[in-house]
Each structure stands twice: as structure tokens, then as C-alpha cells.
Design brief:
Elements: H1 3-27, H2 30-39, H3 44-52
Helix pairs in contact: 1-2, 1-3, 2-3
């Protein structure tokens, strides 16, 4: 199987988990969001950046 395809799929899954984690944070709290993202194998440095430093989040392509 194409390695770049696997990387792309992983990135899409991670991106979706991060986006859902941000929604969890706004709906519930940061601890819930951290646990959600950890359970979806989001890297700790990404979790910290997106939840604790929202100004450093990547811009949406829309």
C-alpha cells in the first residue's frame, strides 16, 4: 500500500480528533478534551498547543 496514503489517512483521522476535541473543550471542559484526544492518540504537544494556546491553532482552509 502507498505510504503517503497511509500518512494522509492518519493525518485526516488526527485532524478530525483534534477538531472534535476542541468542540469537547467548548462544550464541557479542558480535562474532557484532553482525555478525548489522548484516547484518539493525538500527540501530547498537539493537545497542549490546540487546547492551551488557541492562538497557535492552524487556520481553517475555508
Amino acid at each position: 500500500m502507498n505510504v503517503s496514503l497511509l500518512q494522509q489517512r492518519s493525518d485526516e483521522q488526527c485532524s478530525a480528533a483534534v477538531n472534535r476535541g476542541i468542540l469537547v473543550q467548548s462544550s464541557f471542559n479542558t480535562v474532557c478534551a484532553i482525555e478525548y484526544m489522548k484516547s484518539h492518540n493525538v500527540a501530547p504537544q498537539v493537545i497542549e498547543r490546540v487546547l492551551l494556546h488557541p492562538e497557535q491553532r492552524r487556520k481553517s482552509p475555508h
